[in-house]
């Protein structure tokens, strides 16, 4: 049974676009993204969350 993700697909797609990974995701799916790049996506999501917390969003 697969775990339910905490990040929405929309957020992951937006971050993958910012990091230049969206073409890989679109063509081959999330399984083709390297673990390093997945870590970069998580790191970026944390930065966004922290920024939103500071701004009170």
TrEMBL record:
Biological-process GO terms, alphabetical: DNA topological change
Organism expressing this protein natively: Caloranaerobacter azorensis DSM 13643
A GO term for molecular function: double-stranded DNA binding
Domain of life: Bacteria
Protein's recorded name: Small acid-soluble spore protein F (Minor alpha/beta-type SASP)
């Amino acid at each position: 049974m697969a775990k339910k993700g905490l990040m929405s697909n929309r957020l992951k797609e937006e971050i993958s676009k910012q990091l230049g990974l969206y073409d890989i995701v679109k063509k081959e799916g999330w399984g083709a993204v390297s673990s390093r790049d997945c870590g970069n996506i998580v790191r970026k999501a944390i930065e966004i969350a922290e920024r939103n917390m500071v701004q009170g969003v």
